[in-house]
Structures are given as structure tokens and as C-alpha cells.
Amino acid sequence: MLCGVNNGFAENLSGKVGDKRYPVQFPMGEKDQCAKTYKQYIAVNNHAAYAQTAIAFPVEAFFCAGAVGSTKVEAEKEALKRCRSLFKRYKMTVAKNCQIYASK
């Protein structure tokens, strides 16, 4: 006997790190706004992504952004867009461009 079920329910992504590409770093510690953004990314029960700039000293700024999307790819694009928008908003030196550090 073979039984196949498609109940329409997606996997629960809440509390999952997903595809972690690089180790996340928070230069200001766990109370850093980027640490809070990363924790929100993990808590989301949907496709999401977390982007940040790499840390290399000396830097004046450290940028990060999170985003939720209907697909993993959509969330990654939005997180990169939000992270890159910070370059225009704050005219500071950063180590590198924004990269996706984790997505699910």
C-alpha cells in the first residue's frame, strides 16, 4: 500500500538558522542592533534572509539588514537591497559590500 499526502503545509521555519554561509559577527555584542535583526531573522516562520558587511578593522560602520519573502531567493534579494541602501544613507567607510550570511 502506498500513501502520498500533500497537505499544503510548508515546513515550520521558526527557530531555524537555515543556510548559514558565513559566521555572523556582532562587533557591539549581543545588544547590537544587528544581533537583534539576526535573532528576528531566526524567529521568522517564513522564508527570510540576513545580510551584513564583513568586519575588518578599522571600519567606521557595520551594516546589516533582514528581509522576509515568499521565497528564499526573494528574501535574499530584498535583504541585499536593504543592506546596500545603507551605503547611500550613511556616507562612511565599510570593509566590504553586503553579502547574504544566512537564508531560509
Q: What is the topological layout?
A:
Blueprint: E1 19-20, H1 33-43, E2 47-53, E3 64-69, H2 72-89, E4 98-103
Antiparallel strand pairs: 1-4, 2-3, 2-4
Task: Tell me the structural class.
Answer: alpha+beta
Radius of gyration: 16 Å
Q: How many runs of DSSP E, i.e. beta strands?
A: 4
Q: Which stretches are poorly predicted, pLDDT < 50 over at least 5 residues?
A: 3-8
How much helix, percentage-wise, in residues?
A: 25-40%
Mean pLDDT comes to 84
Shape: globular
Strand content: 15-25%
Lateral strand order in the biggest sheet: 1-4-2-3
Main sheet characteristics: 4 strands, antiparallel
What is the terminal separation in angstroms? 34 Å
Number of helices: 2
Could you state the order of secondary-structure elements as H and E? EHEEHE
In total, how many domains does the architecture comprise? 1
Any key phrases for this structure?
DUF4189 domain-containing protein, 4 strands, alpha+beta, 104 residues
If you had to describe this structure to a student in words, what would you say it looks like?
There is one protein chain. With 104 residues, the protein is an alpha+beta fold. The protein has one domain (22-103). 28% of the residues lie in helices and 20% in strands. It has 2 helices and 4 strands, in the order βαββαβ. Strands 1-4-2-3 form a 4-stranded antiparallel sheet, sandwiched between helices. The radius of gyration is 16 Å and the shape is globular. This is DUF4189 domain-containing protein. It comes from Mesorhizobium denitrificans.
